[in-house]
Amino acid sequence: MSDIPFHIEATDGAARRGELVFKRGEIRTPAFMPVGTAATVKAMFPETVRATGADIILGNTYHLMLRPGAERIDRLGGLHTFMNWPRPILTDSGGFQVMSLAKLRKVSEEGVRFQSHIDGSQHMLSPERAMEIQRLLGSDIQMQLDECVSLPCSPEEARRAMELSLRWAERSKVAFGSQPGHALFGIVQGGAEPELRRESAAGLVELGFDGYAIGGLAVGEPQAVMLAMLDETVPSLPVARPRYLMGVGTPDDLVEAVRRGIDMFDCVMPTRAGRHGLAYTRRGKVNLRNARHADDPRPLDDESDCPAARDYSRAYLHHLVKSGEALGGMLLSWNNIHYYQSLMASLREAIGASGLDDRIASVREDWRAGDIPPP
User: Fold this and answer.
1) From CA 221, how far away is CA 368, in angstroms rounded?
2) Residue 289 · residue 277 · CB < 8 Å
3) pLDDT on residue 99
4) Considering 55, 92, 253, 263, which one is annotated as catalytic?
5) How many Å apart are CA 200 and CA 125, to the nearest integer?
6) Strand, helix or coil at 10?
7) Within its chain, how far is the Cα of 279 from the centroid?
8) Cβ-Cβ contacts under 8 Å for 288 (sequence gap 6 or more)
9) Is 301 considered catalytic here?
10) Of 266, 296, 301, 371, which one is the catalytic site residue?
11) Three-state DSSP state, 347
């Protein structure tokens, strides 16, 4: 039985509004977790991230184990102190990055042996080492080591990786041990095979975890495939524990997944887009690289309570982006994280009022209307 309280406060269809409670603070769900890969949400101050409404951020085991090193972060007081983020942190296991970034890798029952993409040094990431690193970092939510395959893949490959991930889940749980006040999440795998997804979920539930993540999606497959896998997987997960869809996604992905009962999300998209000149707004995406913004004195959104959206002209943002000034990426990342947090707050409010479908329809209507062209 988990010692991490998860209170479901309201439901609307399959969607839930709740609160996940840690000693460092509460996480209001559905929640979007900004990604702080290398102990920083890129181009943002921690206090600014918090001011957008973020209750929790994500750190990355793979990057932090390579630089500056988990043992060093531990000596310096843990990840919260190191990066000046006093609220909850979730760390992923590093498995996805090993599969996608490492130069050479070899998967075995023991774990994954790989070469660092930074300096070519050799490393072994086993379930036990992944849990050791996360314990050293001091993260509030820790993830089992899993193997994430790219889609599309054969049913045979999906089964092999799913079964290996289940065995690694069991080893991860043993290695996690007893950490009062900290949570361990299992990860559902199975590619795009409904039977494998259900089998993976059943195996994890039998082992028993504090929460359940759905991995191996948003890896190149169409949205319809991702949503179909959610439809197959979510009913197999415990109602009383949080559900986390890893690495997702676009605003439209978020609303559709919330509708299906997902509680937690993370994605690099809002900050990555901001650093490349793309803003997310109530009216959809706005590309500040476009010349049409060069003489536009209007802000991104004069109704927003985010200073980055409200207090700077599009002409200035366009200038910053075209000039390669760091402030451009900072302001647009701020705007984007704020938009994502505002969207999640709006969905939480709607679930509490049993009005989720109407709220999603209203959000989509604004997206369809598009950005208002300059006068």
Assistant:
1) 24
2) yes
3) 79
4) 92
5) 22
6) strand
7) 19
8) 277, 278, 279, 314, 317, 318, 321, 328, 332
9) no
10) 266
11) helix
Kindly state the DSSP code that residue 15 receives in the 8-state scheme: E
- 6-267: CATH topology: TIM Barrel (3.20.20)
Q: What is the model's pLDDT at position 44?
A: 98
| Residue given tokens 């409904």 in the structure block | 194
Residue 1 pLDDT: 55
Identify the band that residue 287 occupies on the pLDDT scale cut at 50, 70 and 90: very high
Cα gap 220→75, rounded to integer Å: 39
**Paired residues of 133 in beta bridges:** none
Q: Tens digit of pLDDT for each residue in 197-217?
A: 999 999 999 999 999 999 999
150/158 Cα distance (integer angstroms): 9
Residue pair 270/333 in contact (Cβ under 8 Å)? The answer is yes
Token readout for 6 is 């998860």
Residues 6+ apart with CB under 8 A from 58: 33, 34, 35, 36, 37, 89, 90, 91, 92, 266
pTM attached to this predicted model: 0.97
Residue pair 218/230 in contact by the 8 Å Cβ criterion: no
DSSP assignment string, 133-156: HHHHHT-SEEE----PPPSS--HH
Computed over every residue of the chain, the mean pLDDT equals 96
266 belongs to the catalytic site:
yes
Using N-to-C axis directions, what is the helix angle for 223-233 and 251-259, rounded to 10°? 20
Domain spans, the chain: 6-267, 276-369
Measured CA to CA, the distance from residue 5 to residue 208 in angstroms comes to 15
- DSSP characters for 67-129? TT-HHHHHHTT-HHHHHT--S-EEEE-SHHHHHHH-SSEEE-SS-EEEE-TTT--EEEE-HHH
Q: Does pLDDT of 162 surpass 90?
A: yes
Residue owning tokens 């049409």: 292
- Residue 198: name the closest of 210, 208, 188 by CA: 188
pLDDT in tens, 9-28: 999 999 999 999 999 999 99
Nearest to residue 167, comparing CAs of 142, 141, 145?
Answer: 145
Is the confidence at residue 104, as pLDDT, over 90? no
pLDDT at 84 over 80: yes
